[in-house]
Amino acid sequence: xxxxxxxxxxxxxxxxxxxxxxxxxxxxxxxxxxxxxxxxxxxxxxxxxxxxxxxxxxxxxxxxxxxxxxxxxxxxxxxxxxxxxxxxxxxxxxxxxxxxxxxxxxxxxxxxxxxxxxxxxxxxxxxxxxxxxxxxxxxxxxxxxxxxxxxxxxxxxxxxxxxxxxxxxxxxxxxxxxxxxxxxxxxxx
Amino acid sequence: xxxxxxxxxxxxxxxxxxxxxxxxxxxxxxxxxxxxxxxxxxxxxxxxxxxxxxxxxxxxxxxxxxxxxxxxxxxxxxxxxxxxxxxxxxxxxxxxxxxxxxxxxxxxxxxxxxxxxxxxxxxxxxxxxx
Lengths: 189, 130
What we know:
The complex is a heterodimer of chains A (189) and B (130).
Chain A: H1 6-14, H2 18-40, H3 43-59, H4 70-89, H5 103-115, H6 118-131, H7 134-144, H8 150-157, H9 161-188
Chain B: H1 6-18, H2 28-39, H3 52-71, H4 78-89, H5 101-129
């Protein structure tokens, strides 16, 4: 059973078995790519940065001591690389809308989304996430990944846990606001 | 108040579950592995400079020398004595050389600079490897 744990694969890679690294790439490529694409917002560029992330991980695998999860370590490389790229591009995200969304609004948005076709609904939600500023997008993505706790998010982003809680609250509110903006025409009808 | 209501939580969770993870293109892994294979450095196996045979040879020479000295002791060492006498006759070519204070300082500074180099080099290497 131990044959497939991250730790085992990492040991194999260190011993020179590069195929073990391919298994790790397969296991985490979607997660890494999702983080990067939500920060960068451009798929082609995100793919490049995600690749760099794995190559960097391969090169510095010796420095990974196993103090945190491999996934957290990997995501933190992805996050930093993506932010670096954003800074390099100087593409400023300007989303500073934060109207208070009440519980009633949330229910209304939910209803409107329910009425849509599944693919359309997914697209709306995806677009809304893409509209979020880099850090908010990362936090939300990590938060809704299956097993990322606030503590793990802190390891990835280098922010304090309290700070993350506050930011998470705000970014989720922001997501609601953005979604409302997207489905507004539907509600008016 | 910095918590979403339970209903809001549920709604968001539902939506986020619905948008699955994004996937990169199909050749993603292959392209990474191509680079990785190139970067893969075969670490040289550790090999001692003097192997087992080498050490045996050294030991054998040492023991045989000691044996020779033990069985054929030499009271005097005429060659060494002669050498010492010869070297006493040699003159130091730098005997009359005088170095000015400024030159001394400059030599000192140059030495300091050269000593610094390896430290600086390793420091900068460390900075870039991060």
